[in-house]
């Protein structure tokens, strides 16, 4: 509740909207890094870890409310009976978002199980050559750097990077081609 008090109402509403969209499988996740930067630019002192905790809590709140088919009033009542009370603006935003979009949350068992492993969002790669290092004067070693953008089950978008040798990348590419051909037959 203390961290939620720091977030201005418009940013809190945007966060809630993104979480609902994520739970409805309309977007792959919530980009807390970008949202945190915008909140900090507006003059609020909040770090990305705290914003991620708020996002996880709200995601849990909305998914639990959907699973239990709570009405707007039941949700607001249960929020009021919590140990630490939420700020009034937060309750108003949650009430509005839940009233407008809460009923649309898909809570099918299959959708929940699929979301539990995360979701692939994007992949970028670049080719590089290591020319030399402090221990070796002449490397001339080509490599491929791959960056995968993934939304974890809570909706947090993260980038994961790794490097591969050219033979490893060729094998990686071959496996992707095999997956594509199998997907075409489905």
Automatic annotation (TrEMBL):
<dbReference type="InterPro" id="IPR047155">
    <property type="entry name" value="COMMD4/6/7/8"/>
</dbReference>
<protein>
    <recommendedName>
        <fullName>COMM domain-containing protein 6</fullName>
    </recommendedName>
</protein>
<dbReference type="InterPro" id="IPR017920">
    <property type="entry name" value="COMM"/>
</dbReference>
<dbReference type="Pfam" id="PF07258">
    <property type="entry name" value="COMM_domain"/>
</dbReference>
<comment type="function">
    <text>Scaffold protein in the commander complex that is essential for endosomal recycling of transmembrane cargos; the commander complex is composed of the CCC subcomplex and the retriever subcomplex. May modulate activity of cullin-RING E3 ubiquitin ligase (CRL) complexes. Down-regulates activation of NF-kappa-B. Inhibits TNF-induced NFKB1 activation.</text>
</comment>
<dbReference type="GO" id="GO:0051059">
    <property type="term" value="F:NF-kappaB binding"/>
</dbReference>
<comment type="similarity">
    <text>Belongs to the COMM domain-containing protein 6 family.</text>
</comment>
<feature type="domain" description="COMM">
    <location>
        <begin position="119"/>
        <end position="186"/>
    </location>
</feature>
